[in-house]
Each structure stands twice: as structure tokens, then as C-alpha cells.
Amino acid sequence: DASVSSGSSGYGYGYGWDWGYGGYNYGCYLTAAPASIYAGESATIYVESWSLTSPYGGYIDCGNGLPAGMLGCVYGSCAYSCYYPSSGQYWVMGYSGYGICAPTQVNVGSQYANGPGVIVTTGTTTPTPAPQRTCTDGTPWGFCSSNRPDYCRSGQLIEKASLCGCPDGQSPSGDSCVTATCSDGTEWGHCSSIYHGQLCNEGRLVEDAVRCGCPEGQRRQDGVCVDARPFCAVSTNSPQRAGSSVAVSIEYADFEHAPKSARVSCGNGNDVVAACGGAASWGRCNAVCNYDQRDYPKTYDITSSFSGITQCRGSAEVIPPLATTGTVLAKVTDCASGAAIESASVHVVQNSSTRYTDANGEAQFKNLAPATYTLQASAAGYNPAYVSSSVSAGEISVASMCLRKSTPYCDITAELVSEQSCPAGTTQAFQIKVSNTNGQSKNASVSYSSPYSVSGPSYLVLGPLESRIITGTITHDADLAGATAASVNINSGSCVANVVVPLCLNSGITLSANDEVKSALPGTKACYGFTVRNRGPSETRVQLSATGDFSSSFDIERILLASQESRKFTYCVDVPEEALGQHDFVVRASSASNDANASVRLSVLRTDGISSDFTGCQTLQADNAAIYEAITLSNSGQTGDYHVEVEGAGMPISITQSEIYNFQAGSERTVYATIRPAELGEGRENHATLTVTKDGKMFLQQDLCFRVQGTFDAFVQLARPHVTVQKGQSTAVLLQIHNTGTATDSYAVTVTPPFNSITLNPSELQLHPKEDSLVELLIAPLENTPEGEYVVPIQVYSQDYDPTFDYLIKEELLRVTVTGTPRSDALNFTVNVSDVEFQKTASDLVAAFVISVTNNEIEAANLTLDLADVPEGWTYEIQPAKATLNYSETKNFTAVLHTNGAELADHTVTVSLSNADGRKQSIPVTIPAEKARTALGATGLFTLGNTDNLLLLALVVLVVVAIAVYAKTQELKNELVDYRPGELAKTLRQ
Questions:
Q1: Are residues 537 and 564 in contact, defined by beta-carbon separation less than 8 angstroms?
Q2: pTM attached to this predicted model
């Protein structure tokens, strides 16, 4: 076989190479399925490689002399069908983007040789095929009939649409023809009346908004269906039990204004109001519907409306409440026959309730609290019986009782108490214990029955509960032999007690085999039962031994036997794994008086005696009423009569011939299993067990597997093809899956998230035909998710269409727009303003103050500072007027005003901070007249006092530093144009 390594070529293509075919470096290889066919059939050629996807296609040369065909690649799997009109061996060659593929071979037989078209009987009960060279319509074997899709196979017309095609107006479905419709009955080229917006295109429903419009609640946009605005959907946590609350959730989207509430009609005449939360773009409303305990089982239609306009629907299923009591089903039968006893009285001890059994011997006790109960059953002519039964809420416990027939009460009992001994003479004594079990005195007569003379008491008087021992004597011949016994009869008038007295036999040790012939398989044990008896006048010791081909053992090897005592023992033979044929064994019992022998025979069975040609899991067509599956049995073991059975749990399968008579070793017999596909579940495997037995022993036990070919199809659609979600928030989208096929299918839903945190619930589900379900996609981008629009591929796979791999049904594309966190209208800055200081110049009075700004926002801010409410005639400047502040960065801005009349009154100016995103912040600053007058009343360069001079000097220094920092910042910004927010401040700190 070829083996694929994970290495790669040296040319940069990354292809996997196969080194398994004569050293040639194949990049791909071919397989045929099936590899053996008959003339007139086709084989599928598969191309397998590491990453063969479209457009890396290629060509297949079938080796049949016909032109080579181009491969069709679907999702990485490439296949081509080769047709072979005549028998022979054909080499198939392949060529792909990887070069020459490793070839494969197809074997084409000349005719069919499997199960019969007609089963005939020719003196035996074994069905045999009736061969024909043409079919009933004259079509030769191995050719398509003029009546498509019929094909002549072994004299029988079968449907083979994949080869012969279909009549007009029909299309192939496997090897059958069906009306050219989609799964919902829509004709090809027409719009579905069930799934609005879906077009029947070559047997599959596809979305076509242009030709078919859009489903309810959607509209056409750019050739596709999108959610109509606004949109809402109802979901519930049903099913819920009666008397419980059902939570109703309404998801809405794309409203003009965020709704505060929605009105919900619960479907039972009650309306409730659902409180809503969320924005206008998306949100959720929640309400609770209550259903009475009597309202079950039932499904209620739930309708939700917003302001009486937008409506959406859902449903709530109410199921029965949890049970609080249980039931006991009493069954009364006859212990001996197993027959039901009618009119038996059944009594529950704990609550004294009584029921009488019906014709089936059954009686029910309902509404019992969970506990353990004792039941008594009684009937005329039977002894009563008791049973305990545990009751669980909501369950039926079965209490079975059998009654034994009552026997007349006997107040006299008798038993032999003396040991048996063989005297030397002709007289044998015995003793019998007679008891009165009654509380009153009893008179009893004693009689004896024997071919010999017996003497003893003939009458007894027993007081209440008294026991007495009577002694009798038997006189017989001295040379007595045989098994003659004496019988003693004690009759009290109301009942009779009998005792048998065995006679002494002087004949030594005897040995007999209870099982003379046994059969066993190699590697097992064969055990035989024996009886050894001492017929001598005194006790004796017996030693057991055996001779034979295999090792053996006794459960006891030495036995002490009293006179006339017998003992059973077991003798077992160990059968070796390689043993065959028949073997005899002799068992010997040795004693002082004599030895006794007995022989047994062992037949070793063959474990591989019967085999069958049934393999794999056979595929059946669902539209066949009955199928006869031929199973050939080979006998390599023993000649004889065999019994064939097939059993399955409720499986409609049987064997047409269950008895195989005179099955000769070295021969074959064919039996037929009859299967009714219509009664099997489509699309899944059905198992039964074939057994072959002989004389109750198992010779073959084999699993039979049949798979009915059902149709697999599904409708998949997103409730919304586009959603918008904010970073750090979440939204949900529903995906509908509807099983439109005829087979139960299991689905797997996968998603390839372009960003973090997209979850599915559930990710796997199973749907019966015509059943649908919803899958919730929760989309929750984290804070670090980049903003923008993403395409999320959602794949839905069928897990049962092909048991070997998951088959892609459909891929839906969900567009997700991720937006940033909304900003606050206010700036998150810390602003501090210094005191206003004055300086008198030759021409005017100058006021100055410093604005210190710290950025508390995560992102960098581009600030512009300005002054407002400046008095007329004043001029001002701010250094710097613009600056960029990173997160946690602080900068100082200096404002200088040239005043006119500042000493006359206090004035207020407003410092305005504006960010590039349009947000603003204002800070009022008071220009004090007192400080202005003080500045005007002083002389020199600074008109303030010594302390004020120091403050003003510090102010000037701050102005110079601020200007230098601003210049340095502008220089670095020009050099570091690719810095991200926050990195520039880090550089400045360094």
C-alpha cells in the first residue's frame, strides 16, 4: 500500500509526496470504488493527495479506450466515474497539478453471479438462481433497457439511473428516478411555496431573491435578502411542565428608537408586558407567561408586538406536571403451570386496600405514595404468597407472585430411623419413628406390604404431639439378591403416612455412568456424572481412577460408603486446543470386595467448522418491498443436520430455510435472508445476528449489517445575514436547520471566527425527517478587537450521509460589523489654572496665567486652547495653542492678555479646550482688579512686591520651559510619524 509522508519538495510548493510506488515521487494516488464490477457498470475513481483543491484539477484515463475526462473537485475531494462496457482488467491513470498520480486497477467481470432474480425449488429446499440471457423486455444482460432507468442484470430488470439515465421530467436519485422536484416538492426552475425566497435549482433549494423574492420579515437589497427593518424574534425556554412559568425572550434589531416595552400574547387568553433593555440597534425584552396545571399537553402560539406594529411569533410547549404518586401492577400465577389465576385476592398490607385479578391475573393499585409496600395474594385452593414492591413517582412497579396449590393437612408423620445392616442370618430388623402433630390423641393402624414375612405392631395410640418408635422384623432367604423393598403403612383415619424399608443386598460395589456420550469444543472441559453404590453387608472404602487420551480429574477421589449407600460424583476431561475426533475413557471404582468399571465417549467438535461469505454492511434500496440476501455457508467440520437462525431487536429479517439437512463436510450451502427495507430506519445501520447450530451447539455466530439508503437533505438559513455589535458587548443570531430528507440525520455546526469569542449552542444536534431546530450564535468581540466589518463562515455538516466523513451541507456567511466603545460627550481631563499675575510695561498692563492639563482618557487627545469672553480692547495669546496629550500625560499652556482698564473692575474670561473629535470643556478664569491696581501703583520693571516679584519670575521661567517642551514635541512628532498612541509620551519621558 502507498504511504503518504509529511515531507515537502524543495521547490517551495509545500506538496506532500508519496514514496510508496516503486520509488517514484507521486504527489497523488488513485483508488477505485468498487474495484471489482461487471460489464456495463461504472467505477468511481478517487484522487487523494494532501491539498488537492480547485483549481488544481486534472484528468483521468480510464484505460477503456474512451477519451480522458476532467476531474471535478468539490471541497478538496476529486472523483471521476469510469464506464466499462466489456470485461477485463483495466489500469486507470491520473494526471493532476502534482504530475502523474499512482495508478489503480479495475477488474470487470463478464456476468453477474449474486442473489437470484427468481427463487425456484428443484427437489430441495435450497433456493437457487434461475439464469436468463435476456430480460423480459428483450434487453441483453449488461445493457440499458429502452425503458429508462431499467438495466438488465442477470436476467432481471433493475433500476440503474446513474448509468441509464431517467425519462423526461425525472432526475436520478441514486439508481432510482424521481420526479424532477426539490425536497419540498417544488419543480425544477420554480420558486418554493414553503420556503419563500428559495429556487429549486437542479434538485436543491438555493436562495434567489431576484426571482423568488424574500421570506416574510426580509427585503431585497443588492440582489440578496436582508432583514426588514425593524426585526424581532421570539424564543422561549419551553417545554415546561404545567403549572410552571415559561420565560419569553424577544430579540429586536434596527428600530428607529429603542422600545421600552412590548406586548406579549401568551396564546391562552392572557396578555403580559415585556420590559425591554438595549439600544435601538439591538436589544432584548423579557416576560413570563403562566399556564394552568390543567393546560397540558399543548403548544401555545406566542405573539409579540411593539406599539401594535411590529409582530413576531414563537411557541411554548406545556407538558404534564411531575407525578407525585406511582402504581403497582400485581401479577398472580400458578407456580406449577405458570398460568394466570383469575379472581385472586391481592391485599396491600400498609393501606388495607384489596383488588381482584382479571383474566390475565393482573390487578392495579394506583395513586400510591412513594414507599415500599407488602402485597399478599391468595386464592381458593392455593397457599397465600407475599411480596414486597417499591413504588417510585410516575412509574409502574410490577409485583409478581406465584401460588402453590394447598395440600390436605396430615397430622401423622413417619420416618425410618434405624441404620441398614446386613445380618448373618435371615432376619432383618428396622425401626420407624411415628409422630402425632395434632393437639389431640390419635389412634393409628399399622400394616405391612412385602413378598417376605414382616412382623411388628399393628395398632398405635398417640397422645397429643407424642412421638413413638416402633420396631419391625423382615424374615427372608439367606441368599437374597435384587432390589425388593418392604412398605409400612400408618393410617390415622384422616391421612396416611408411608415408609419404604430397603432390604439388604449382598452384591458388592457397582458403578454406572449417567452420561455416556458428550461433545465438546477444543480448549473446554467435558464433565460426566457417575453413581457408585455399596450393595455389600458392611461399609467399604472406594478408590476412583481413570484411563484415557487426555488429562482428567474427579471432584472426589476416595469415598466411604455405608452398606446399601450410593453416592454420585463428577468426572471431567480437559480437552486440548488441538484435539479432534472421538476418544474413549474408562473409569474404575476399586474396593476391598471387588472393582467396578464404566466407560464414556468424547466427541471433539471443530470450532472453524462453519463459515459464511457475508462481509461489511449491505446497502438496501428503501423502495423494495422485500430483498433476498444470499449467504453462502461453507462446512469444513462435521457432516450432519444444522439449524440456521437470524435474530435482531425488532428487525424485519428472517431466513427462508432454517434447517440444513445432511450438510456434508467440505461442501457449501446457500441460505437466503429476507429483509423488508420499508420497515427499517432509513440512513442508519441495522444489525442482526446469524447463528448456525448443531445438536444445540454453536458453530457460527456472525453479525449481519444492513443500511437502508435514505435521502439526506436539509434547509439551512440565518435569521439575520448582518449584525452590528459593539466591542465588549454581545449579540445573538439564530441559525435555522430543517431536515427536508427522509432519513434521520445528525448535524455538526462549525464556525471559523475571524476574531475572538464566537460560540455556538448547540454545536451538534440530531433531527428526524421534517423536524427543524435553531442554533444560537453568540457574538461577543472583546475590547481589543479591531473595529471593522468581518465575514464569518458558518458550516453545517451531515454526520450520517457518509459514515466515513462529515459531508458539508451548506455554508452560510454572516457579516459582522464591530464598532468601538461610544465616547462620553465630556472630556475626561484634569485642568488646573494658576493665579493671574500682572506686569506693567511702558505701553500697557499685561496679565498672565498657566493652564495645566492632564489626559485621563486611554486614547491620545489632540487639544486646541482658546480664550472666550475677552473684554473689548484686550488682546491675548496662548503658548502653545495646540498640543497632543497621550494617556496620563500633563502639559502646561500659558495665556498672556494685554489689558485695558483691568484695574477698574474684576473681569472673567473663559478658557476653552477643544479635542479633535469635537468634544469641548470650558473653565472660567477671573482677572482680579485689585492685583491690576497694585501693579499700576509700583515702579521699576516689576511693579509688585518682593514676594510677587519672585512669583512673576517663576512664571516667566515656566513660560520659557513650556515653549521649549512644545518645540521638542513637534520635533519628535516629525521624526516618529509611525508611533502609536502612548508611545510618543513614553519617548518624551526617556
A1: no
A2: 0.26
